[in-house]
Amino acid sequence: MTQPLEGIRVIDLTQVELGPVCTQALGDFGADVIKIERAGAGDLSRSSYPDPAGQDNPVYLSLNRNKRSLALDLRQPAGRQVLYDLVARADIIVNNFRPGVMDRMGLGYEKLKKFNPGLIYAFGSGFGSRGPYAGKGGQDVLAQALSGAMNRRADPSIPLSIYGTALADYAAGMLLVQGILLALVARSRTGEGQQVDVSLFDAMLSMQLQEATVWLMRGKELNWAGYPLSGVFSSQDGALVIVGAFKANPLRDICSALELEDLSERPEFANHEQQVLHKAQIQQIWRERIATRPTAYWIERLDAVDILCAPVATLGEALENPQTVVNEMVWRIPQANREEVVTVGNPVKLSATPASIRRSPPELGENSEEILRELGYEQGRIEQLRTERVFG
Fold first, then answer.
1. Which helix (H) or strand (E) holds 232?
2. CA separation for the pair 269, 273 (Å, rounded)
3. How do residues 254-295 score in pLDDT, each as one tens digit?
4. How far apart are CA 135 and CA 188, in angstroms?
5. Which domains does the chain have, with CATH numbers?
6. Of the candidates 97, 102, 128, which has an alpha carbon nearest to the alpha carbon of residue 19?
7. Which of 12, 251, 266, 387 has a 20 to 30 Å separation from 108 between CA atoms?
8. What's the rounded Cα separation, in Å, for the pair 181 and 156?
9. Secondary structure class of 359 (helix, strand, coil)
10. Is residue 119 within 8 Å of 92, Cβ to Cβ?
11. How far apart are CA 321 and CA 271, in angstroms?
12. What pTM did the predictor assign?
């Protein structure tokens, strides 16, 4: 079956998460992704997580299926020439270096488009290519902090903390995919490539579009997590989340499910404004009640009155959820002479041309010689480059 991006070649100079999650998504839908890595060391994710498998640890494996690895020394002129030869035959090049690094290496957009006017030059950074923070090292947690997202909690009494999943990296990676696909559509009409620029900072701001617009237009804080009829509550054997919204009188229905009197009939809880003022009192009544029964008991009762609710699962429980199985969100990737990769699948479902597994995550430099031969390099030249440690 032909996939949407079959025949599209991607030169991947990315590492860690923002870039690799983008290029993996392109690979899942058929693109030929050539991962350029530093000889000997490779992608930083090969060494950022201590594991018995070393460079092929689960963090690296989670981000690099459907790619080929070329270990190349771009400090050498011969290494850069290999990259120029690849660019001349490529559709897309992706990097997530700090702004200016590619230019200093002789790999900026103005230089590379001379080899290929149709090249789509995509890059992700911490804060964008211009402005006061352009040269600052970008990282997910910094974007959480500077974007205002870290400061927004359900309640001001909750201590500030780092969110445990790399939200900015993943969001920016998916926005980079979006930008690349848009650039491909534009190129199909004009024949010209262009730059695609995405940052962690912008990704986190854009995720707060509702809250930001309320602040910009009304000067007010919008905090969905702080609403009086929503919260996380400990049960007899775990915890559950309740979202009291999208109904005429959710307080009445929640109280019915919790086998309590109808608090909405009390004057101090009669409307949203009063409920905001007396949130702590309402939720304390709920906490005491919910703590007396198991989670499943309350979920069944809340579902019966159509109140949005769910148990608070561990990641392990989520991965074993029957819905995870139905959605085919756990992929198993066999590897010759290596441990099987068990990872999260692609969340985008296409009925006719779905994502697929064509390659397991490559070992460092696994495809170097194969790629050089595809470029037309003769065996003698390949051996010379190997001797000079231009590739590995």
1. strand 230-234
2. 8
3. 999 999 999 999 999 999 999 999 999 999 999 999 999 999
4. 34
5. 9-208+323-387 (3.40.50.10540), 239-311 (3.30.1540)
6. 97
7. 387
8. 41
9. coil
10. yes
11. 37
12. 0.95
